[in-house]
Amino acid sequence: MRADDVYLAGVGVHLPPAVPTAHAVARGDYPEADRNAAGYRSVLVAGDLPAPDMAVDAARAALRHAGLPADAFGALIHSTTYHQGPDGWSAPHYVLRETLDRPISAVELRQGCVGMISALELAVHRLTADREHDAVLLTTADNFSVPIVDRWRAAKLFVLGDGGAAAVVSRRGGFARVLSVAAYSNPGMEALHRGGERLFPPGITRGISLNFEERSDYWRAQWAKGVTPPMGHLGECVAGAADRALADAGIDLAKIARVCHVGFARGPLHAIYLDALGIEPERGTWEVTSRTGHVGAADPFIGLEHLWRTGEVGPGDHVLLIANAPGMEAGCAVLEIVEPPETEE
């Protein structure tokens, strides 16, 4: 989908303290062989700070950056990958009350780690259709510091990091023009992240933890029995989303200065993202994600905030935001930086 006259007017992040992976190995939390293979230097750990409070902090930073009045906003979209608080409670409206405090729609988007890019796509649609308001606030945050989740061993693809990010999407201008947003899915691979779990009662109500490795083990066992697992490669979804977004933006990958990707471990990052896109690591954001871990849906915007604030991208540069989620689905956005970072006085 091509976007017309839509911008990112503000971006903000909340980054909890980083725990060196060497410390996790010394405590016995993280196998040393996994650390050596993954390449992470540290992972963000929020302790007992609620995820919605991290989203609020990131949102306030993005709103300060954007400088738009609260009545310019028509909606808030809060993306999550894990539980936010009490059942039957609305984290999006908590974030709304603590930020814009306006009588507008606040929606929770459960689109996994591609959530913020999916939310950006929804925001573009809304701003195109609804001319009454000029902005949408996007937020996300997750905290995996709960006993039922082992952040260090839940997946070989990544180590789970905590944190939040936010962005203001606006028709009134901003630091980056949104050129396009696109998605690509392979629903035939859906069962890979379901494994052998039954759908009801939900696993969390039975004390079953978030553990992708156990689900992968299930399919390995099935394959050993002669049952073929769902076939496909997530890299094909990543490449498909990027191809669509680039075509809609009317540019090719050679014009992309930097790619803001998810915080996968070194090997999967290459296999699923860098190799699939045909780019060298220096054009990605491993410099950031190797210090944060995989921070849910926040990763691409944490990378974007870092690149822009540090001046690693500037006016005229094109940036690709890309992420994936169970389903399998990948999303991609193409941005053009139009303003330099603010200078501190």
TrEMBL record:
Coiled coil: none annotated. GO terms for molecular function: 3-oxoacyl-[acyl-carrier-protein] synthase activity; beta-ketoacyl-acyl-carrier-protein synthase III activity. Residues 108-186 form the Beta-ketoacyl-[acyl-carrier-protein] synthase III N-terminal domain. The keyword Acyltransferase applies. InterPro entries: ACP_syn_III_C (IPR013747), ACP_syn_III_N (IPR013751), Thiolase-like (IPR016039). Residues 246-337 form the Beta-ketoacyl-[acyl-carrier-protein] synthase III C-terminal domain. Transmembrane segments: none annotated. This is 3-oxoacyl-[acyl-carrier-protein] synthase-3. The keyword RNA-binding does not apply. It comes from the Bacteria. Keywords: Acyltransferase, Transferase. Its EC number is 2.3.1.180. GO terms for biological process: fatty acid biosynthetic process; secondary metabolite biosynthetic process.
